[in-house]
Specification:
heterodimer; A: Rossmann fold; five-stranded parallel beta sheet; two-stranded antiparallel sheet; B: alpha/beta; Rossmann fold; 2 domains; seven-stranded mixed beta sheet; five-stranded mixed beta sheet; globular
């Protein structure tokens, strides 16, 4: 897909995100906007997947969102990729919705295979699913996404150690390295230290990319895919900007979990072209 | 009714044998263990099916997450570690990735309760039934002896959805027939009586069988129900029995808070509030000791069942 086509989808996804969270005055726009380009690329170019959703996902790539609070971007990308009607985005966080505040399988939303929200659990889930793909002689891959703050959870490192020790080489984990978390900068709250060195030391191949440059995303994701099947799991440290695409949300942790009001929403929408039609 | 002792074995060995049977019967069964393969008697499965056995090391949170992920692709994961590390240590992982996500994971927990013995209170979990039965979508099973644990292990593989299977370490008498049918959610009435209903699970079923003999000698006719499934609870069996006996004793190797007794009391209070007495650990941690010493000291032994029966009968309304 051409970069401008991906950018057009991403612009619509960003519109969806700010409209969804503003409508219910809750949700997490910051990380959602920061991961929009990555998830757009993942679903519209990288993954082999089927919007006619099947829970077992045999012979298709699987994606697990470990940092479940950025559900708005995932829901929008899933809808725009054909998993469910975009109109359903208007039900986000409302009573009875399939689009729960954090992703859930409880109401059978197509595209979601595991609840997430309580942080640190998605890498274990992804590694388990990847091992079963091997057992089933299924050559497709497992992708996971994690926040950088989420790496403060110990379970992530249990899973990292396990995946390398067991040569789980059909998984590509991506870290949303925006450097921000609820209470402030990650470096101030609890520094991750040398993150690349940590993953290296845990036995993973480590790549870096710019999460807002489709050329960087494409080349890195293709390289990551080419590195699978060689005995080591792969992690990508993806540099992003929380709130990317809406100027007043960028450069701070303040918009991690705060929704724009009606006036702020209009300012945001003025910066984001409507390309596929608002829901 | 006489109970024939068919042998003496630990319930964890029933799990190991059941898992080995499943390994042969069902290619979708996979097993995970957090560095306690010998203690959980999972060696036979590991040896016969190394490709379907996953050693996770001492990392229980990751084990539960792996198991949840392994259901995607159609497998039926059985996790194995001590009950303490199967529940409290990984409660949030079970809650989100297994129970809420409705994953077909079988959480198999050994060394439950005081009868873990000498290792002491750090390992003697007495809260696990409560934690697990509070989770929506979770089935909770506490089989009574070796044979029943084997039968339950095999049965839960055919049940779609999360299951907590609780068993233990000590060698105890076997009294369930090897060819008995295990039905999840259907209580076993082991003895019929008219004066009191004893509802027990796990090792306390044998202690209650011992109590039956003493009760008979003093002229008390007790009905004994093996409530191997704590959730879903066989309410019909409870109500049918108490309509006849008019009082209840519950017996469990668990905290009084949150366990079988509390589950039964909910049924009574909503339907037919009759006197109930509890044989359970009362809001205290355990300590080091032999399993039988601990059952005596913490009042979950045969004499405690007998005493509770007397208290329950004494509380029955006097009918002229």
């Amino acid at each position: 897909m051409e970069n401008n086509a991906l950018a057009a989808i991403a612009s619509q996804v960003r519109r969806d995100i700010v409209r969804m969270v503003s409508a219910v005055n809750s949700g997490h726009p910051g990380g959602s906007l920061g991961c929009t380009d990555f998830l757009t690329y993942l679903y519209f170019e990288q993954m082999q997947h089927n919007p006619a959703f099947d829970m077992d996902g045999k012979n298709e790539d699987l994606f697990f969102l470990s940092n479940g609070h950025i559900s708005p971007v995932w829901y929008s990308v899933l809808a725009r990729a054909g998993y469910f009607p975009a109109a359903e985005l208007g039900t986000f966080r409302k009573l009875g919705t399939r689009l729960q505040g954090h992703p859930s399988t409880d109401k059978n939303l197509p595209g979601v295979r595991m609840a997430s929200g309580s942080l640190g659990q998605g890498l274990s889930v992804g590694v388990g699913a990847a091992q079963i793909k091997k057992l089933n002689q299924d050559p497709t891959l497992v992708y996971t996404l994690h926040g950088d703050g989420e790496l403060q959870e110990g379970q992530i490192w249990e899973a990292a150690m396990y995946a390398a020790a067991n040569k789980v080489d059909n998984i590509i984990a991506t870290i949303d390295a925006n450097g921000r978390q609820i209470d402030g900068d990650v470096d101030e709250v609890l520094s991750l230290g040398d993150l690349a060195q940590k993953w290296h030391a845990f036995g993973w191949d480590v790549l870096h990319m710019n999460g807002h440059d489709f050329d960087s995303i494409r080349s890195t994701m293709q390289q990551a895919k080419s590195m699978t099947g060689k005995g080591k799991p792969v992690v990508i440290i993806m540099k992003t900007e929380m709130g990317q695409g809406v100027d007043y949300m960028m450069g701070s942790h303040k918009w991690h979990g705060v929704a724009p009001n009606a006036e702020q929403l209009q300012v945001a929408l003025d910066q984001l072209e409507e390309t596929l039609g608002d829901y | 009714m006489e109970f024939e002792v068919l042998g003496n074995k630990d319930t964890r060995s029933g799990y190991g044998e059941g898992l080995a049977v499943l390994g042969e019967q069902n290619p979708n069964v996979v097993a995970l263990c957090a560095d306690l393969t010998g203690s959980l008697k999972m060696d036979a499965f590991q040896k016969a099916h190394p490709d379907r056995f996953f050693q996770t090391g001492i990392a229980e949170a990751n084990m539960i997450g792996l198991a949840a992920g392994m259901t995607i692709g159609g497998k039926i994961p059985f996790t194995g570690t001590f009950a303490n590390f199967s529940t409290g240590r990984v409660y949030d992982q079970i809650r989100q990735s297994v129970a809420y996500s409705k994953k077909n994971v079988k959480i198999c927990a050994s060394h439950a309760g005081l009868t873990l013995g000498e290792d002491g209170a750090t390992h003697q979990v007495l809260e696990d039934i409560g934690m697990m039965r509070m989770l929506p979508n979770m089935t909770v099973i506490v089989p009574a002896d070796f044979n029943q644990t084997k039968q339950a292990t095999i049965a839960i593989a055919a049940h779609e959805g999360p299951v907590y299977l609780r068993f233990g370490r000590p060698v105890m008498p076997i009294f369930v027939k090897p060819d008995a049918e295990f039905v999840i959610g259907k209580a076993d009435v082991l003895a019929e009586g008219v004066d009191v209903t004893i509802i027990a699970c796990g090792h306390m079923v044998w202690k209650s069988i011992e109590a039956l003999k003493e009760l008979r000698e003093i002229g008390i006719s007790a009905e004994l129900i093996n409530m191997h499934t704590i959730k879903p609870l066989d309410e019909a069996a409870i109500l049918k029995s108490i309509a006849k006996t008019g009082c209840v004793v519950t017996a469990e190797e668990h905290m009084m808070n949150g366990g079988l007794g509390e589950a039964v009391s909910q049924v009574l209070s909503r339907n037919n509030p009759v006197p109930q007495e509890y044989v359970a650990v009362n809001d205290t941690f355990g300590e080091s000791g032999t399993p039988m010493e601990l059952m005596t000291k913490y009042h979950i032994d045969t004499p405690d069942v007998v005493a509770a029966v007397k208290r329950a009968i004494a509380r029955k309304p006097y009918i002229i």
